[in-house]
Design goal:
7-stranded mixed beta sheet; single chain; 14 strands; 328 residues
């Protein structure tokens, strides 16, 4: 085991895969000489050079299109967009080309590419650089969607993404880059579609992904210490494929479910999860499925940012209410 930051784990995955397979290259704004907007690719230019660490102009549509073209000709590009907020600028390439070519050609054309980007709040970056837009991407058939919460999963899932023959959207959380965790040594991959039970419990299941996993774990610790409530935390890790079997098994055990997401409430991924839990566990539920999400407002900057998204205390209160009734 090695202690790594989330950022270092991602860099390690890229480095290992580029050394293993010469078809892998990285392309995006400032990924080369500068080392990436969030320093994930720092040092890779010195090892792999300008041919495999390609800096692009400020055109998301052109960058993603380059990746699609390279992928269909046999390369394995890792395309970086600075922010998930910018997917709208490349949506035709993402939704109509990247996601659909394998289906439209009956599998004759593959698009083995990874589209890396970061999302979420935590740096007071304002309404155009702080969104959580995973629901938009999850709605597009043909894309794999990955949102790791820990350094170990960041590395293992990125390596799996680079080796996938399907196009993968890989969303990193900007507030997690400096977090540390143990990462296994040697060849280490995490398969898609396998959720992780991050904490076992018996009275309520908290389902989360990305940074909200950490908030859910904090809330679960407080619940047990202060309220005597036993909460189980499920980390989804990938949204497509989605491991509902692990979620449903947990909810059948606890009889209660709380879905946590940093995205907006209306039409967010939390709504899809809540619906699937209700459909799969209706007879086991002791209470209706609850949600804790971001407010339905553009993400504010400065101090208001924290007020717009869930925190561990809000999660704790809602989970306690589900188990104990209205006592908070």
């Amino acid at each position: 085991m090695a202690l790594m930051t989330y950022r270092e784990a991602l860099r390690s995955a890229l480095q290992e895969e580029m050394r293993r397979d010469e078809r892998v290259f990285v392309v995006g704004e400032e990924v080369g000489r500068y080392g990436g907007a969030y320093a994930v690719t720092k040092g890779l230019f010195e090892e792999f050079g300008a041919r495999r660490m390609i800096d692009t102009p400020i055109s998301e549509a052109a960058t993603v299109g380059l990746g699609v073209g390279a992928a269909v000709t046999g390369l394995r590009p890792v395309v970086e967009l600075m922010y998930v907020d910018f997917i709208g600028l490349a949506m035709d390439q993402i939704a109509n080309q990247m996601a659909k070519l394998r289906y439209m050609t009956g599998g004759q054309i593959r698009v083995p590419m990874v589209l890396r980007m970061q999302g979420g709040t935590g740096r007071s970056a304002g309404a155009q650089h702080s969104q959580s837009l995973e629901a938009l991407l999850a709605h597009i058939p043909g894309l794999r969607l990955v949102m790791p919460a820990t350094p170990a999963d960041a590395k293992g899932l990125l390596k799996s993404a680079i080796r996938s023959d399907d196009p993968v959207v890989f969303i990193e959380h900007k507030a997690l880059y400096g977090t540390k965790g143990e990462v296994p040594d040697g060849e280490y991959l995490v398969p898609f579609g396998h959720a992780r039970v991050a904490r076992e419990g018996s009275e309520v299941t908290i389902v989360a992904y990305s940074r909200m996993v950490h908030y859910a774990l904090e809330a679960a610790e407080k619940l047990e210490k202060e309220e005597g409530v036993s909460a189980e935390v499920v980390d989804l890790r990938t949204l497509n494929p989605l491991d509902m079997a692990t979620v449903l098994d947990s909810v059948r055990k606890t009889g209660r479910a709380l879905v946590v997401s940093e995205a907006h409430r209306t039409c967010g991924f939390a709504a899809e999860l809540a619906s699937r839990i209700m459909e799969g566990c209706f007879g086991s539920l002791k209470k209706p499925v609850a949600r804790v999400t971001a407010k339905d407002v553009p993400v504010p900057a400065t101090l208001l940012e924290k007020l717009s998204i869930p925190d561990s205390e809000e999660i704790r209160r809602e989970a306690n209410s589900i188990v104990r009734g209205d006592q908070r």
